Amino acid sequence: MKRFFWITVTVEVIVLVVSTWPGLLASVVFDFWFVGMDFGVPGFFIAVPLAVVWLLAAWVIAMRPSAHPFGLYLAASLVVTALLLWFSLPQAAGFSLSRSSFQRFLSAQPIESSAGHVTLNRRFGIYRVAQVASDSRGGTYFQVRTVPDFVDTLSYGFALQPNRDGTPFGAARYTLAPLGLGWYAFRASDDY
């Protein structure tokens, strides 16, 4: 029971750390899918059933009436991890450590919407920003990661005072998650 608990907690910690970077978890899943295809079986069809069986086993072990205290700890860790991921708290914590770097850059070098995408490849706190762009509809967008999505590309990053209609990197499947003080994490596809 203890071994099962510690393996599960280790995987949860890895997932939480990876989720600190926008789009990295999606990138890992996408890469795993195509690595599996190199061997003739998409990784998704292997990983998802394994993950489901693992989580069901963890839940069954945790809910047994005679469960060892580690069973309760296991259930609590699964719930806490799910809530942390649902509310993007690892990403918010990582961004709070890096926010001042983004703000210093904008204070020293405002980006005009007519400038288009400016390639940076520069570190801002714990994040490496590939491009920055300002949108005429409002907001400054820092692209941290791109992930191929078959025919289009998903962009992930951070935005200061974004608009609700789209980014300079695309407007399809556009989502915003508040990080505080006018900052948001964004995801958008270039499949306008």
Topology, element by element:
Elements: H1 2-18, H2 24-38, H3 43-63, H4 69-86, H5 89-108, E1 118-124, E2 127-134, E3 140-149, E4 152-160, E5 172-180, E6 183-189
Antiparallel strand pairs: 1-2, 2-3, 3-4, 4-6, 5-6
Helix pairs in contact: 1-4, 2-3, 3-4
Features:
192 residues, single chain, alpha+beta, 5 helices, six-stranded antiparallel beta sheet, 6 strands
Rg, alpha carbons:
20 Å
- Tell me the major beta sheet: 6 strands, antiparallel
Can you write the helix and strand succession as a string?
A: HHHHHEEEEEE
Beta strand count:
6
Distance between the termini: 49 Å
Mean pLDDT metric: 83
How does the overall form come out from the CA principal axes? elongated
Provide the number of structural domains.
Answer: 2
Helix/strand-derived class?
alpha+beta
Spatial strand order of the main sheet: 1-2-3-4-6-5
Percent helix among the residues? 40-55%
Unreliable stretches covering 5 or more consecutive residues? none
How many helices? The count is: 5
